[in-house]
Amino acid sequence: MSNVPIELNPALLRGWPLPQPGFDGDKEARGHVLVVAGSAEMPGAAILAGEAALRAGAGKLTIATAASVAPQVGAAIPEARVISLGETPAHGFQADSTRRLAELAGKADALLVGPGMQDEGSCVELVQHLLQRFSAIPIVLDAAAMCAVHPRGEPHLLDEAVDWEHFRFPTPVLLTPHAGELARLTGGVRENIEQEPQGAAQTAADRWNAVVALKGATTVLATPDGKLWQHQGGNAGLAISGSGDTLAGIIAGLLARGASLEQAAAWGVVLHAAAGEQLALRCGPLGYLARELAAEIPALLRVLAAQ
Description:
Layout: E1 6-7, H1 10-14, E2 32-36, H2 44-55, E3 60-66, H3 70-76, E4 81-85, H4 97-101, E5 110-113, H5 120-133, E6 139-141, E7 174-175, H6 179-186, H7 190-195, H8 197-208, E8 211-214, E9 218-222, E10 228-232, H9 243-256, H10 261-283, H11 297-306
Parallel strand pairs: 1-10, 2-3, 2-5, 3-4, 5-6, 6-7, 7-8
Antiparallel strand pairs: 8-9, 9-10
Helix pairs in contact: 2-9, 9-10, 10-11
């Protein structure tokens, strides 16, 4: 039986303030985010996540993405450094991608992996290497990158040296599944997870030694040491392509500023929902775009901190 969750709301966040740079701090003081994301078919995911990280207050952004779309990503976010990664025939990243990123292991302050990535086999291999090289900084695994906890039982993806049934992260990372993704990763039933999200999130957090943000109409945040929060808010308009990429980017930007995994996730969930509420007031409850969410974040950061 899971603990009774604490409600995430502005009052709670006000008592849990984010790290703030000094008035004379430069971009280094605000943190450097590395986003490994995108593919030939989904370059927009890297753009959405990267822009959201900057809107959340990070000072520097590096995006590593598929070589075929890297120029377009760089043009869309001129504030970012863009690293081109070689592609597999299935639109994943080639095995040498980790070496391309190794130079950033001592420079980045937060790592986000997964939005818009394809080719599960190459994704699992890449994530395993990145977890080792970037173990000193907070890591968010989103979308395809979450398959690192269990590659859906497909024999050709499984590393025989890993005990997948008992897999645990040596150091906690943040996972951001919705109910369908968590069902695939655990072999559970989506409807059961939707009915008991608190228990499902806590079980996953315990099982994998991870902070789990289980997204849904009620979003549940669970930590391996038993802390549990939930948030009810936002609106149906947030259920749109790219919305999760934006949330992951917000969280990564807050991590780069020095927030803990659970604090960044808590603030990110509330900010993301509040951005949807602001857009619904201006545009209507349906029809606003994920690309519009990030622009709401700076003002909301100020409002939530001041309430």
